[in-house]
Write a structure and sequence with these properties.
The structure is a single chain. The protein is globular and about 65 Å long. 36% of the residues lie in helices and 17% in strands. Helix 11 packs across helix 13. It has a seven-stranded parallel sheet, sandwiched between helices. The protein has 382 residues and is α/β, with parallel strands linked by helices. The chain folds into two domains: 189 residues, Glycogen Phosphorylase B (Rossmann fold); 177 residues, Rossmann fold (3-Layer(aba) Sandwich).
């Protein structure tokens, strides 16, 4: 086992790319030769620091032997999610090379499919392959794809429900780059540049909005508006793109109290933005979406040494509430308002929660440790 090919469903602007980037780096440090394939725009990897692996676009699949140092094809292909764009590429790859197939699950693919299309699984299964949206998982073909895997990695334990009984699996948590995400004082120059008012509570949310999480993110905007209406000056700094209309045509009530930065290319810049916050909040609750994922922003939130508020699902099932995070049954607008008031009135609690969050990240969200787990999983089942 020498050559590892990661196959990503989007270019390096996707949140998942951070995970692939770091696992590829860790395996390269262990002496393996890693390549990451993306549908297009491989140059977007340049936005990530300390890259020590190679990249190709899907269109360059015929050049793969020239990319690996030993002139051979991949020994392992790790498909990063079973979405159609990845599955189709892996099927083409099968005609060119012999390899062990590993597949990574990071979402309830069926829920996301139905949420994005507003169609049932039965209806979707009958769509002609040529017209099926390739950025989603096909309800029948993705199951067959998983069934043919030599191993499956899952980002959270609940995804075991989608793993075929005969396929070995590994719960594979991500890590966090602690050279970028670590506790530090607020950059006052940046705060002034962004126009953050004095004596106000600052919240940050670094994430995209799509059909599956639109209601949750709206609740955060609503909470900020409510806090201001109740006499608690609060600003929300937001990064990320909107792929769903979640505020409505008249969004002045929300945008009045937000600083919208859009897509931020530099990962280091995200850390500087998070350092401006007093509290970091992941809205949501236990449901068919959140139970089966681990939001990519949460490891970064925890590593910053800020009090983190999150729902009692995915990573929130493992944090000690009021010690490592504030875990709530439902992180909705009303509960966000009450929790922000509680935390801003208690500096000692904020400090304790921040220290606990860093301790959790140090213990469970370490790239070298989790990269070693992945390597051992490969070695066991190749």
């Amino acid at each position: 086992m020498q050559n590892i090919l990661f196959v990503l469903y989007h270019n390096f602007k996707a949140n998942s790319a951070i995970h692939v980037h770091n696992f590829a780096n860790q395996l390269t440090d262990c002496g393996l030769d890693c390549v990451v394939a993306v549908p297009s725009h491989k140059e977007t990897a340049n936005s990530l620091s300390n890259k020590n692996y190679k990249t190709i676009d899907f269109s360059e699949v015929n050049l793969l032997k020239t990319v690996f140092r030993n002139g051979q094809g991949p020994d392992i292909v790790h498909a990063w999610t079973p979405r159609e764009v990845v599955r189709i590429f892996c099927e083409k790859l099968r005609k060119l090379h012999s390899f062990k197939l590993f597949i990574h699950l990071e979402d309830n693919e069926e829920f996301i499919l139905q949420k994005n299309t507003q169609q049932s699984l039965k209806e979707l299964s009958e769509i002609d392959e040529r017209h099926f949206p390739h950025h989603l998982s096909h309800p029948v073909r993705y199951r067959k794809f998983l069934d043919r895997a030599d191993g499956i990695t899952i980002i959270v334990d609940r995804l075991q429900a989608f793993v075929p009984a005969h396929v070995p699996y590994l719960v594979l948590w991500p890590g966090v780059d602690k050279t970028i995400f670590f506790p530090r004082d607020r950059d006052q120059t940046l705060a002034t540049k962004l126009g953050i008012p004095l004596n106000c509570t600052v919240l940050c949310y670094t994430g995209n909005v799509h059909a599956a999480n639109a209601r949750e993110v709206r609740s955060l905007y609503l909470a900020v508006a409510m806090l201001n209406r109740e006499g608690h000056p609060t600003i929300l700094i937001r990064t990320g793109q909107d792929f769903h209309d979640f505020l409505g045509a008249d969004d002045k009530w929300a945008k009045k109290y937000t600083i919208e930065l859009g897509y931020v290319e530099s990962h280091a810049a995200i850390a500087d933005i998070l350092a401006l916050a007093d509290i970091l909040i992941q809205p949501g609750k236990k449901d068919a979406f959140n139970d089966y994922r681990l939001p990519s922003k949460l490891p970064e939130f925890l590593a910053m040494g800020k009090p983190v508020v999150l729902p009692e699902t995915n990573i929130g099932r493992f944090t000690k509430s009021m010690e490592q995070a504030v875990s709530l049954t439902n992180v909705d607008a009303l509960n966000i308002v009450e929790t922000v008031k509680l935390l801003m009135a208690d500096p000692a609690l904020r400090e304790r929660l921040g220290a606990g969050a860093v301790a959790f990240a140090d213990t469970y969200l370490d790239w070298p440790t989790n990269g070693s787990k992945l390597l051992h999983f490969y070695q066991t089942y190749i």
